[in-house]
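Repro:
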Amino acid sequence: MAEGEQKIALLAGASGFVGNLALDILLDSPDVGRVFAVTRRPLGREHPRLANRIVQFEQIESQLKGLTCHIALCCLGTTIRQAGSEQAFRQVDHRCGACVCTDSESRPGTTPRRRVVSGR
């Protein structure tokens, strides 16, 4: 990473217990200049480096098209009881949780950025 370049982080599931802790860590980090917190509902908190993106996880690929980041964290999770069925559970924990990042073009001397793609 070039000197002084701050990282961009993508955090899916920032409203849950683990995701909220990860969000606190990212926002406290001086190396992270922007955090895109991807959630189904508004987080209800403000921070100068926080951008809360409200999405439908079934359409995450199209809703985050073009977004690039250096760091990607997936803190999505549920239980079968909360989801209502095994199929709904698998949708959240497997399909939505399988969002991955792939290398994108980067400039020499900089940290490679990642782009959001679907793990379908």
